Amino acid sequence: MKILAINPGSTSTKIAVFEDETPLLVRNIRHTVDELAAFPQVTDQFDFRKSLVLTELEKEGIPFQFDAIIGRGGLVKPIPGGVYEVNEAMRLDTLHAMRTHACNLGCLIAAELASMLPGCRAFIADPGVVDEMDEIPHITGSPLMPRITIWHALNQRAIARRYAREHDTRYENLNLVICHLGGGISIGAHDHGRAIDVNNALDGEGPFSPERAGTLPAGQLIDLCYSGRFTKDELKKRISGRAGLTAHLGTTDIPAIVASIENGDKKAELILNAMIYQVAKSIGAAAVALYGKVDAILLTGGIAHSDYVVSRLKERISFLAPVYVYPGEDELEALAQNALGALRGELPIAEYK
């Protein structure tokens, strides 16, 4: 089986070609600010990014022949986890999605490219809007604002399955707390293969992160909204984009921040330790969602490469359960594995409605 995986991000389009489990090509096509500035809306980048994918395949001499093309899922309506075949309902919901992000292009490009090949199928898997929570976790103190989930579902599930394989068991047999440490930070309580509680890591819940504000004091936020100092769009960016570490320290570069700390920067030390503290508290809360019955805590994402962050997190959370670290993320491999499992009949293919 030949699989093409496509993962559009804010400043790059990552692609990979797999033959069964073997990667034949992995590429990270970076986009400059000037290139993307030419497109008023993210969806306007569709032809630009699609052409880059085709050009890269041609440049590497890879024939445009695939059994499946799988894209990163977009910010559509909440759905259970799993593999979904791209259909017209998904395409329409993606084109009119309330939240704008480059990931919305994943299913659109996959569907377009698959339509050019006879017998080729287009999929997405475990998009960021996966919601498997029961009623109670959705409820807040205001019926106007129920909790929603936007998280790193694809990578969290891939890491969970990897941990399960390494321990000769199945994801569906485990209770796990998984923390993805990236530009946004998501923390999920996984109960025997279902994410029963997870934060909105995009625009307003959980610990602050390199780019996100996390949970904020509601009263102060309302006052700021009516202060006249910012437009609505500017305030949105103060929650997601120009928030977290970048708002406090002017950078999201963890190694650079750690280097500043080692050179005596007390402010950098205070802010980074505050983020670590908030992450640890959220991991503790996820353990409560599992009644304290946690087989393991898994740390993943780019920041998991940082010994400074990981060591201090472990000091606070190791009493809960054994901690395992899986630095970085391999969402392309996760996408390809999901497509392969679907084609082989090992994973069910869900219908988006």
From TrEMBL:
Identify the main location: cytoplasm
**Which keywords does this chain's UniProt record carry?**
ATP-binding, Cytoplasm, Kinase, Nucleotide-binding, Transferase
Q: What's an example Gene Ontology biological process for this entry?
A: acetate metabolic process
Q: Does Cell wall biogenesis/degradation count among this protein's keywords?
A: no
Signal peptide range in chain numbering: none
Which gene name does the record give?
Answer: buk
GO MF terms here are: acetate kinase activity; ATP binding; butyrate kinase activity
Q: Which CDD domains does the annotation name?
A: ASKHA_NBD_BK
- Native source species: Bacteroides nordii CL02T12C05
The EC number(s) attached to this protein equal 2.7.2.7
- Enumerate the subcellular locations listed in this protein's record, separating them with semicolons: Cytoplasm
Which transformation does this protein catalyse, written as a reaction?
butanoate + ATP = butanoyl phosphate + ADP
The name on file for this protein is Probable butyrate kinase
Which EC main class describes this enzyme? transferase
Against InterPro entries, the record matches this protein to: Aliphatic_acid_kin_short-chain (IPR000890), Aliphatic_acid_kinase_CS (IPR023865), ATPase_NBD (IPR043129), Butyrate_kin (IPR011245)
